[in-house]
Each structure stands twice: as C-alpha cells, then as structure tokens.
Amino acid sequence: MNFLIENWFLLVAAVVSGGMLLWPMLVSGSRGAAVGPAEAVQLINREKGVLIDVSEPEEFAKGHAVGARNIPFGQIEGHKSLPSNKALPLVLVCPTGARAGRAAGMLRKLGYEKARVLAGGLKAWRDANLPVEKSA
C-alpha cells in the first residue's frame, strides 16, 4: 500500500493509458460498425449502397468521393435525398469520420439499420486511391 501512495503518478499513468486504449472501442460501439474503403466500395457495388457525405457544402465542394450525395449533418433528419428504401446500406463519410458517426446513429434511430461509417473519413478514401472530385 505504501508503494501506491509513494508512486501515485504511476497509478494515474496506468489508468490514463488504459483508458486511451479502450476509448476507440467505446466510441466505435456508440457509432455503429465502421467500414474501410474497400468494404464501402463492396457495399456500394454489390448491395446498391448509397454514399452520403455529411460535410457542409463548402467542405463538400473542396473535395468529396465520386458519387456521394451531400446531406449536411445539421439537415440529415428527414432530408429528401435520403433513400426511401431503409433496407439499403448507407455509407456515411465526412473529412474525419466524427460527424459521420453521429449521423449514422441518428439514421439508425430513423430506421436505417444498415447505416455505416467510413472509418478514417475522406482521408482514408483518398489513401485507398479511390476517386475524389471537386464541385464547381
């Protein structure tokens, strides 16, 4: 017990590092299943998945995945560009994946059970050498 009292900073460091290791697992559990770029392309090609970019229009114009629909995060609920068939897989993307994770949770509550997040966001899409375009 005396060791713990004298070396409290080691205990704090161990707890913090353990928390940092568990954080990605806790976050991914709340936002649903994330898919990599290759799996996203399979969902789009094989299961007629819909690629939705939840970036703001300015971000979308600077660069987005080819074929993505732009539905800003703040307008996602009830947007007319969402597919009426709720059984279709949705792949949500944003620059980092953070907004896409929150959007996927919202869409699952609305009945889109196959809403998935592109892990790593648009950067992962680019890193996989998948096509990106800019809007005029």
Q: TL;DR?
A:
With 136 residues, the chain is α/β, with parallel strands linked by helices. It has helices spanning 2-6, 8-31, 37-46, 57-62, 98-109, 121-127, and strands at residues 34-35, 50-53, 64-65, 69-70, 90-93, 115-118, 132-133. The strands form two sheets. The protein has a five-stranded parallel sheet with strand order 1-6-5-2-4. A two-stranded antiparallel ribbon has the order 3-7.
Write up this protein.
- The chain has 136 residues and is α/β, with parallel strands linked by helices.
- 47% of the residues lie in helices and 15% in strands.
- The chain has six helices and seven strands, in the order ααβαβαβββαβαβ.
- The chain has helices spanning 2-6, 8-31, 37-46, 57-62, 98-109, 121-127; strands at residues 34-35, 50-53, 64-65, 69-70, 90-93, 115-118, 132-133.
- It has a five-stranded parallel β-sheet with strand order 1-6-5-2-4. The chain has a two-stranded antiparallel sheet with strand order 3-7.
- β5, α5 (98-109) and β6 form a beta-alpha-beta unit.
- The radius of gyration is 19 Å and the shape is elongated.
- It starts with a helix and ends with a strand.
